[in-house]
Amino acid sequence: MTPQFADATDSAIPVHVIEEGAQDAWANDRPPRVQAWVRANGFTGALGWHLLIPGDDGAPAAVLAGYGTAAARARGRFHLAAMAATLPEGTYRIASGLPESDTETEALGWLLSGYAFARYKAQEAGKARLVAPEGTDAARLQTIAAGECLTRDLINTPASDMGPEALDQAARDLAADFGAAVTVTAGDDLLAQNLPLIHTVGRAAAQAPRLIDMRWGDAGPALTLVGKGVCFDTGGLNLKPGASMGLMKKDMGGAATVLGLARMIMALKLPLRLRVLIPAVENSVAGNSFRPGDILTARNGKTVEINNTDAEGRLVLADALTLGAEDSPDLMISMATLTGAARVAVGPDLAPFYTDDDAMAQAVSDAAAQVADPVWRMPFWEPYEKMIEPGIADLDNAPSGGFAGSITAALFLRRFAGDTPYTHFDIYGWNPTPAPARPKGGVGQGARALLDALPQVLGL
């Protein structure tokens, strides 16, 4: 269930946000017993510390929420969400002290603190419900939270229940909710429709590979979202070691993220024409697995030498990007859990992205800072183009040497976007340690930044 804001009520418990060192200034205007309580508990307004203030009946009458210093807050995000997850069940309202510039982000974080993945086991989510702070667009924030929760649920579901067929059904369910149209090309029909790389990567799996194509909207600029939907990645014949295979249910994180973003776009009725393309496959091992050394021909006629079957994501995306570019959209964006090199470069919390459009890069970076969805621009570095050219084919899917792996993967994908304005996100899609508003597990990255940037980028 997607977390919702509580209805406004006079009985909502007030939350006073206190910066570090400002506790005395706040307490001086309160009754002596409150002043004594704050002093006796040593509350200082330090970030992450909250203090319940009891009423005459012993029940919570107010909450002090430590908000630390600007320097301390810069080292994290969704600070009130940490408190929300541990407060007693009840309805709360922000009464004072929260900077206006932080209100929407903190309110969204509070909402997301109520998320729990409970498909297989009952899980306790935060039960402290927040009244939407004055001045916030509550409906928009709840819509964003619903998109993020969809992304998390899809990533968290293991491949036993989230193979290509289930991902297909998830897209159909989303389309049905918003009146979108879906067509799916599966199995050998991929070859008939000239989507050979998607077929080749997924043909060894028990469930047929497929290309999911969802369309919504009939007016406005055209936006195409392409999401990597590798529902499980064994590495193929270049088999991953067990330790590297353990999280591969999340290798469809790009697909999950674009579906979450699509849900936000459709629910908010953005005036654009949306297309979502998801190559949904499982990279498995069988007698008909594709092999190292194979040379494959993509939809656009380019030949690709396979030097590692574990670099399969860029192959399925290549056909999808080519198909998307044939429509000449105003903007095409791919999102994929594509390379370990991106994690080495920026860690799990940052989403690196690539674009040749400086205005697009600035809009996304500014939006990311505004909505606490961190991203980092990386370069389409032209001198590395030769690294993806093996000599006996047009392209190499896994250049040797190990250098600049995220950049070379992005350069590979750009070869299939044609002349379409194109941006690529190399996301991780997973939160390895619990954090405020982000439990351990699947997480959306870059979607909220894109949602905020799209009006400027597309002139909506």
TrEMBL record:
Task: Output the InterPro entries linked to this UniProt entry.
Answer: Leucine_aapep/pepB (IPR011356), Macro_dom-like (IPR043472), Peptidase_M17_C (IPR000819), Peptidase_M17_N_1 (IPR048816)
Q: Which residues form the Cytosol aminopeptidase domain?
A: 308-315
PROSITE patterns xref list: CYTOSOL_AP
Q: Which UniProt keywords apply?
A: Aminopeptidase, Hydrolase, Manganese, Protease
**Gene Ontology process terms (BP):** proteolysis
Its Gene Ontology molecular function terms? manganese ion binding; metalloaminopeptidase activity
- CDD domains the UniProt entry points to: Peptidase_M17
GO CC annotations? cytoplasm
Which family, according to the similarity comment? Belongs to the peptidase M17 family.
What protein name applies here? Answer: Leucyl aminopeptidase
Record the organism.
Lutimaribacter pacificus
Q: Tell me the lineage of the source organism.
A: Bacteria, Pseudomonadati, Pseudomonadota, Alphaproteobacteria, Rhodobacterales
